[in-house]
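The record is kept unedited without comment:

——
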Amino acid sequence: MAVSIGIVEDHSEFRQSLVYLISSFSDYTLAWAYPSVEDALENYVECDVILLDINLPGLSGLEAIPLFKKKCTEQKIIMLTILEDDYHILEAIKSGADGYILKKSNPNKILDGIQQVYEGGAALTPMVAKQIMAFLKPETAIPGSPSNLTHREKELLLLITQGMTNELIADKLFISVQTVRNHLKSIYDKLQVHSRAQVVVKALKEKLV
């Protein structure tokens, strides 16, 4: 089944380039494309992954993340933007974004990111991942960090921070994908997070792996 994509991008030429990219591969299908968050919310149709710009007329991409998640709690969202600063990257992930990819990325990297997020992974380009690590490096462990993860959950947490999908984790640990999902739900609950990207950031920041 093709992965369905929604696009929110106010720059018409870039929006059309994304539409062309998505439409060029049978593995992907375009659900909708709008220039603003308001238009997208008003005409929202559930899709697998949303490509969401940050700087938009009206509501910003950061403001839109919880609104799309309210429409569908399982909605996957990738921020696709020119902004490389720590603030926007961390705020997007804290707000529930599942990935953060720079617009200047190779089109294949955008498609790879969509696939990673669709499969339950977190899409972060090397530059973005490097900036997150640089931002977190000075941090020390936070007193009272969650320590009630089971041994198996800690194993999963380590593999998640290494960018492994649920399927790869299942193969490595010789368990079913559903068991991985069950463990992942427990990790989300214990760490009080709502996306895989948030899991990665919290695990690194609080030195849980």
About this structure: The two ends are 35 Å apart (CA to CA). The chain is about 50% helix and 15% strand. Residues 101 and 125 are 6 Å apart (CA to CA).
